[in-house]
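Pasting as-is:
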Amino acid sequence: MIAIIAAIDKNNALGYKNKLLYYLPDDMKRFKALTTSHTIVMGRKTFDSLPKGALPNRRNIVLSRSTKLVIPGAEVFSSLEEALKHCASDEQVFIIGGASVYKQAIPLADKLFITEIDAEATEADVYFPAIDHVLWHEIKRDNHRADDRHPYNYSFVDYEKETLLIADN
């Protein structure tokens, strides 16, 4: 199964200058809980934004055009297609960014795990692709109010891709 995980604001903004727009501790906890013991796939810029390099207790896959790039704790592939060919059919794969990887992966994904942040960034330079609500159906929503650790209201929203069933006539 291929899943996408992202935190976006009201305008689908993801980040600015290779940094996340918002720091929400519970979003970080959710990310860790969902991705631990699974495979994460990211672009090189997303990898570069990680404060301590490869994320522990996960198979880290980094996409890069540079065929000579070596990253400790990660496997490097030149394309999303190549990376996915090296994943087992029963492997849980999470796409964690950036914007161009999300755009490539959304047609291939089975689930979306989106944190919707009730805010609008004053500056953003990368955006999540629009979620087509004809193809993607919300299956779960957990709403959270702003508090002393979370400056904005936010929701954890899970989507599944609509599968068309064609009956034999």
